[in-house]
C-alpha cells in the first residue's frame, strides 16, 4: 500500500510539474521578433496637403500600420539611427529646438506613421530637408517608429529605455504617457520666410 501511495504521489507530482512548466514557458514570451517585416509602401508624398509649399502632387491619404512599432529591437535601432543621422541636432533629442518638438501632442504635419515617413522622405518647408535617396526606406520606417515612441504612441513593452549615458531631465521613452497628438494649424504667415 505504501508503494502504491508513493507511485501515486510521484505520478501526481510529475503531472503537476509538467503543467507548471507549460504555464511558465507560455508566460515567458515577451514579443515576437520578426526580422523580415515587410516595409509598408505609401508612394511619394502621401499626406494631407497643409501648405502650398509642399513638393509633389496632392495625393489621397493612405493609412498604413508600421509593424516596426511593436518590436523593441527595431525601436532601439530607430533611436540609434536618430542619433546617427543627427536628427537630434535640430530636434534636440525630441524636445524641440530649430526643429519642432517630438514629445508633445502638437504635430504640424501629423503623427501617423505614413505622415512621419513622408516628412522624413520629402522634407518640409522652413528647414526639414528631404532624405529621399539618402536613407533606405527600411531605416526611415525605423526612425518613424522611434519618433512615435517619443510621444508614447507605441506599446510600452517595446519602447526603448534610457541611454547608457542617461540624459538628465529626459524621461525614457518606455515611461512616457501616451498623448493624443493634435493636428496643429499651419504656422502663421508672419513666421514663414518669404
Give a structural overview.
The protein starts with a helix and ends in an 11-residue tail after the last strand. Helix 2 (72-84) crosses helix 5 (137-150) and helix 4 (113-122) packs across helix 5. With 194 residues, the chain is mostly helical. Strands 1-2 form a two-stranded parallel sheet. It has helices at residues 2-27, 72-84, 88-91, 113-122, 137-150, and strands spanning 106-107, 182-183. It contains five helices and two strands, in the order αααβααβ.
Write the CATH homologous superfamily of the largest domain.
Cytochrome c-like domain
Query: What is the 3D shape?
Result: elongated
- The fraction of residues assigned to DSSP E strands is under 5%
Number of strands: 2
Walk me through the topology.
Blueprint (H helix, E strand, L loop, with lengths): L1 H26 L44 H13 L3 H4 L14 E2 L5 H10 L14 H14 L31 E2 L11
Parallel strand pairs: 1-2
Helix pairs in contact: 2-5, 4-5
Q: What would a concise description of this structure say?
A:
The protein has 194 residues and is mostly helical. Helix content is 35%, strand content 2%. Helix 4 packs across helix 5 (137-150).
Amino acid at each position: 500500500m505504501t508503494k502504491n501511495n508513493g507511485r501515486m504521489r510521484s505520478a501526481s507530482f510529475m503531472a503537476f510539474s509538467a503543467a507548471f512548466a507549460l504555464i511558465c514557458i507560455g508566460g515567458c514570451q515577451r514579443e515576437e521578433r520578426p526580422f523580415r517585416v515587410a516595409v509598408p509602401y505609401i508612394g511619394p508624398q502621401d499626406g494631407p496637403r497643409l501648405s502650398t509649399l509642399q513638393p509633389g502632387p496632392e495625393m489621397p491619404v493612405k493609412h498604413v500600420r508600421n509593424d516596426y512599432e511593436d518590436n523593441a529591437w527595431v525601436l532601439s535601432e530607430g533611436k540609434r539611427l536618430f542619433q546617427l543621422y543627427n536628427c537630434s541636432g535640430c530636434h534636440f533629442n525630441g524636445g524641440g529646438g530649430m526643429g519642432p518638438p517630438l514629445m508633445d501632442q502638437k504635430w504640424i504635419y501629423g503623427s501617423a506613421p505614413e505622415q512621419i515617413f513622408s516628412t522624413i522622405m520629402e522634407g518640409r518647408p522652413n528647414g526639414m530637408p528631404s532624405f529621399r535617396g539618402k536613407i533606405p526606406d527600411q531605416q526611415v520606417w525605423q526612425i518613424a517608429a522611434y519618433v512615435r515612441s517619443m510621444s508614447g504612441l507605441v506599446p510600452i513593452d517595446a519602447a526603448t529605455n534610457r541611454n547608457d549615458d542617461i540624459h538628465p531631465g529626459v524621461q525614457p521613452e518606455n515611461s512616457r504617457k501616451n498623448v493624443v497628438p493634435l493636428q496643429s494649424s499651419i504656422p502663421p504667415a508672419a513666421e514663414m520666410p518669404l
